[in-house]
Predict the 3D structure of the following.
Amino acid sequence: MKESVISKSERIFTAKWLQVPVLVLWAEWFTILTLIDLPAAAFAQAPCPGIHVKILDINNSTGTVACALFNSSVGFPTEYLRSATNIMVIKIRKSQARCDFVEIPAGTYALAVVHD
C-alpha cells in the first residue's frame, strides 16, 4: 500500500481553505437572517401597555365610578352607553377609584368618568 506524503505547506493551505468558506458561510447566514427580520422590527408597532386611570379625591366613598373609553368623538362624553368601546364600573374605596383598560390596540382615545 502506498502512502501519500503531504507537505507542511499543503496542510496549511488545506486548513485555511476549509476555514474561510465556513466563516463566509456564517457571515452570509447572519446577514440573510438579519435582513429577513429587519422589516418586521422596523415596521412593527409596539403593543399598547394599556390605559390606567386613577381618580383621586372623590367627594364621598359611596356608589361607583364608571369609566368609558372612546376611540372616536362620536357620542363623547354623554352617550357613553351607546358609543364607548369599553366601559368599566368600579367601586369607590377611600375616596379613590382606578380604571385599567388593558389589551387595547394602540391609538388615540378619549375617556369619560362618571360618579354614580
In short: The chain is about 35% helix and 25% strand. The chain has two domains: 7-44, 51-115. Strands lie at 51-55, 64-70, 86-91, 97-101, 110-115.
